[in-house]
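Below: protein 1.
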Amino acid sequence: MIICPACGSSVEGDLRQGCSSCGARAVGPPLARPEHELPSYGRASIAFASGVVLSAGFLVSAIAALVESNGLSLRFWRVRFWSIVAAGETAAWRLKWMALPVTIAVLWSCARIIRSIKADPHKFIGLRAARIGFTNAAVVTILFATLIGITVPARLRQRRYAIEAAIYARGYTLDRAFRQYLELHGTLPEKEDYIKELGKLPDPDGSIAEALRFIDPNGYQATTGPFASTKVKPLVQRGGALRNIATKIIADPPGVSFITYELRLPSEHRFFGGDDDFVMRDGLIMKASEVPSSSVLTRSSAP
């Protein structure tokens, strides 16, 4: 079967007899294949260019990060080794979502190109150039993986510091709310309705409401403290018959003023009741594992 060059239809037999669709005829037999064919350098050039462009992109990104951290002053030309490493880490984290898939694709394509050149060396040349491109892509991939890997612990540590800073900020906001409530009412709120009572305080910026979203409803305990006062005087014993009794009957004084508190704050994993929780005592925040065993709070099992 032959394709007619005039109309593109398929022709069975010899085209010199004429095309059945358009009537075109070949002027002679097909040309013979050339005795010598030049090998192709295209595949090798693609592999070489891919590796070079990948390494050049990472280098440019690292230089840009180095300029951002050191500026274009004379000190830029006397940067130290660790400054260069830090710039590489910054570049790797900036390009990680784009560069890692690209490097994997370049490595795969370069490996296939090298295999095809080895399989047919008379048709394709440029094996050394293809290997250079593959090597550049492999080096960039290793650099990305190494620079990202060595900074993961530090970034996890920074993330933990950020979470703990947010917990401290919410704790100090709640301590301010407790002190404000104490000034207004002369006592701290009771355990049953302390969230509702604190929510009634003036909150123009919404910080108190935001902090109340992250606390354990059962993780609060208010106490009277050593210098607590009462709003109602205790009952006085009356009657002569009771004066000679050795034991004294003391009525429970209602209206006790709570002036100290203890509040359990959520841990960095936002679970309650673990040793990773934070406990705030009258504005002092500490780890739950560091709190003495005499704490009035009990661990809560509710998430």
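Below: protein 2.
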Amino acid sequence: MTDTTHSPHGARSAQTDGSARPVPFRGGGFRPATNRWAGPLVFALLIAFVEVGLRAGWISNLTLPLPSDVLATFVQLYETGLLWRHLVPSLTRFMVGGTLGALAGIGVGTLIGLFGLARAGLVPMVAALFPVPKIALLPLFVIWFGIGEGSKYALIALGTFTPMVVATYGAVDNVDRTLIRMGQSFGLSWGSIVRKIVLPGAMPGILSGLRIGLAIAIILLVAAEMLGAQYGIGAYILEAGSLYDLERLFAGVAILSVLGVATSAAVAWVERRVLRWRS
């Protein structure tokens, strides 16, 4: 018997008879595959299940409203102009407070990650402030800034600030030190290393913290608007809840859900633009 496994003829025959399959390219790492229809399909199936369950009597009408009635309430909000009267103030508070908190959190977190003195002085303060329920500070902010917009901006900014600080200095800490030493060996200045190595390397963690911070900002937005706001999604939900108007209540909740999905999509868009180097 002749051994042809190591001969060129044997290798060619193995390739031609289909026994040797090509190895797929794995340069993409663990990048997850996306499906744009999976999310909307899950939402549609859940809404259809609730609609059928309520009409068939599987679910009590005292616990959930018909999704079709919620949609009719939303259309009525749009036609009467109340949607924009409540939505515009909420978006303004969310954008102003969230932006202030995110920028301040990124700045302080970067200082903590880069400078030992800032870390020694600021980490204990952040650790003491982070677990405090921010909604408990709303009466204090009302005393400081009044019942108007200032207290709402301050509450939302503080709620966004603390998770952004923790995420940012953790992301700066996790930058590969080998890359930093490599930059030093090539004679890069401290500013160039921070700008070209540290900040790009920390950006995935910063953006992950931004998702969490903005989600907390939406929660605090509703809480702030439930106290001393005439217009806003939180005020609308509070009024509907006091009247036990489930259709209006869930219409307000649906608006908040859409705001959360839109915020997550915006952060994902920034990730695709900023983190192209990971693909």
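Residues 1-7, 9-15 have pLDDT under 50 and may be disordered.
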